[in-house]
Amino acid sequence: MRGRTRGRTAERIPPTRLGLRDALSEAVAGMLRRPGRAALTALGTVLGVGSFVAVLGLTGTISAQIDGRFNVLSATEVTIEDVAGQQSEFAGPGFPADAEERLRSVAGIEQAGVLWQVRTASSATVGTVPPKSGVAPAESAAGAGSTVYAASPGAVAAMVPTLREGRLYDAFAEQSRQRIALIGGGLAARLGIGSLSTRPAVFIGDQPFTVAGIIADVRRQPEHLMSVLVPKATAEDLWGPPGPTEARMLIATDLGAARQVAELAPVALRPDHPEYLKAVPPPDPRMLRASVTSDLSALFLLLAGICLVIGAVGIANTTLVAVLERTGEIGLRRALGARGRHISAQFLTESATLGALGGLVGTSIGELTVVVVAVVRDWTPVLHPATVAGAPLAGLVTGLLAGLYPAWRAARIEPAEALRR
After folding, report:
1. Is 60 within 8 Å of 297 (Cβ atoms)?
2. pLDDT of 142 above 60
3. pTM over 0.85
């Protein structure tokens, strides 16, 4: 009877187990016991997940802006190159003298004009004083290396410039061969020209030009912000016509008309030899958009991944310190019947909970960042639903992975050794 009683008593003892509810309760109790440390531990995940959401959201938002910019600018720009010299050494210039007039018959063209880099002036110094004035070398070389372009009024208009001060030269200045120039804002800063109230002049070599306007920005051909633009006819009088293959034509078209203009423009300009002109149509916006978006996404995903790794290292470090500090508690639990897997589950649940909470807070901060940046820049915020749904899960997984090693260390602590400490 005594043996049976012992057997029945032994059978009544339930096996030691740790349910999910108990694990969550212990995790919350552990976090509330040291709220400051728990907040600092979750901060790593907050920053990591917040950066992850913000980076992905800003990538999508910027990509949408790039889409629009490429659709409007790249899809409305056509460049025509003079390749007459490559066809025949006796061909002469590919562009006729009345090139802009001939293109007026082509539908879909908004602005068009010829431009080229002036050969003889490309090596000359651009400055605010003549080269033989005897000024200090630093002052006379302020514009050294600046390029000079001969550009018709149509070519300047096709760049879609934004003036900081002054005005653009027009067809009258072209026909009367006036010695006026447009300079980019970068070159104006180098030359020390901050205002046109004193009617400043620039010297291209020993040739003076009155500055008619300072260009603050251009939507096309941004390299001209460090250049000097002079009327085409004036440049021809001073330095001669362009050489073979030097001139090109910049054309701004209506949206959707670029490829048609690229096909018709050479025929309209040179119906006798359209092969003397090579039209360069805009790239396929879909391919260009996909390429840029892919590059941005890959770069920013890498940065977001680094942020998550930093957050995981922070959680792992803090959890490991907590394991070392709670050695006595772990020993007491083991002495009361908790097994190693229960201790592991406890710390894993605690680190995963911290990661999940950090993921939720980080997701909110990331979304807010995207919206604020979009509002400030007057953009439309773009955030994929999968990013919002997956970010807290990423925080949970990060916390779970970060707690693996500390939980393993905690499970290997011997009860007797832990109680002795």
Report:
1. no
2. no
3. no
